Amino acid sequence: MPRVNTVLGPIPTEELGLVAVHEHIGYGMPGSELDTKWWKTPEQRYEETVPKLRRFHEYGGGTFVDATGICNGRDVDYYRSLSAKTGVHIVASTGFVGGDTALPFFARASVDYLAGHFVHEITAGIGGTGGRAGVIKVGVSRGGRMTDLDKRIYRAAARAALTTGVPVLTHLAIDAENAIAIFEAEGLPLDRVLFGHVDDGVNADKTRDTWIAEQGGRVGFDTFGYETELEDPPFWARPRKERLEHFLRFIGQGHLGKVLASADANCSPLGWPGVKGHTVNYIFEDLIPDLRAAGLDEAAIHTIFVGNPADFLTIQN
Ligand SMILES: [Zn+2]
Question: Could you tell me the distance, in angstroms and rounded to a whole number, from the CA of residue 295 to the centre of ligand 1?
Fold first, then answer.
């Protein structure tokens, strides 16, 4: 039976429902948990997070993919309790947001070691939690080009994806030629890879979204809601209309079957204040209404938020 790993165990794909494919329960730089200014009690974190997940569930959200990965605040015991409390399926990631957020222990590791570690987190579980990873996170370090460590992580991710059947999700889709060369050399079909953040305000112009789709990759417009219209927009914000038009143009080019959309929001950010007024529920409160107003029909909306993520997340064997 087609299935997906969630933190509470594998579930049949048909139970995923509407998926937010790139989100964060709480993302922070390694070490932020040691900072006294930003440190939060477990109670504060629950208090900030539970209402957002409950609302997500009430709106009809089924599954929340936490794209946080190792070293950036991932906490699977906590995710398991959030999932049990709110009824939202939570999919956790193995892998790293980028080479530049991998702690030294992992930064020095070989491809074989990294691949073995990812496979263990997908098949045996993450630490002693019993929760298994359902996706592999990789990414491009700051600077716009893949570093040697980024490349080792991508190669290890490709091997772990082939061994286990779970997909790969990227932070940034810049320098995609190098990424695709690695996936092709390893023999990973590109429809097992979601190239994320093609819509972000810093990199959209440099990201070859159409080319990636033509090579067979999946394409993530997954920073929806980081808008210049916000009260205190982050540096990667973009005008709302411009992002929406970019998304609709891409779909209009015949790539509906390749797109995924998400908000990349933090329920309770770690070590930084987060972006005020932006939550995963942007998907329901703003994005889906905008898509309807732009003339997208319900079948297309279903493809973007249900069909495509189900195909992407289902473990291949
Ligand atoms: Zn993210």
Answer: 28
Whole-number pLDDT of residue 104:
96
State the distance from the centre of ligand 1 to the C-alpha of 85, rounded, in angstroms: 23
- Distance from Cα 66 to the centre of ligand 1, integer Å: 8
Rounded CA separation 156/136 (Å): 10
Write down the pLDDT at residue 40. Answer: 87
Cβ atoms 194, 220 nearer than 8 A: yes
Instruction: Tell me the whole-structure pTM to 2 decimals.
Output: 0.97
CA of 116 to the centre of ligand 1 (A): 24
Low-confidence ranges of the chain (pLDDT < 50): none
Residue range 163-178, pLDDT digits in tens: 999 999 999 999 999 9
Distance CA 64, CA 211 (A): 28
In the chain, the amino acid numbered 101 is T
- Around 52, how many Cα atoms within 13 Å sit in the side-chain half-sphere? 23
Q: How much distance in Å is there from the Cα of 23 to the middle of ligand 1? A: 6
**Residue 207 structure tokens:** 């990201």
- 258 near 218, Cβ under 8 Å? yes
Span from the CA of 34 to the centroid of ligand 1 (angstroms): 21
Spatial contact of 38 and 271, defined as CB atoms under 8 Å apart = yes
Give me the pLDDT at residue 46, please: 96
Range 283-290, long-range pairs (CB < 8 A, 24+ positions)? 283/20, 283/59, 283/61, 283/224, 284/56, 284/59, 284/60, 284/61, 286/224, 286/225, 287/224, 287/225, 287/261, 287/263, 290/240, 290/244
Distance CA 129, CA 82 (A): 14
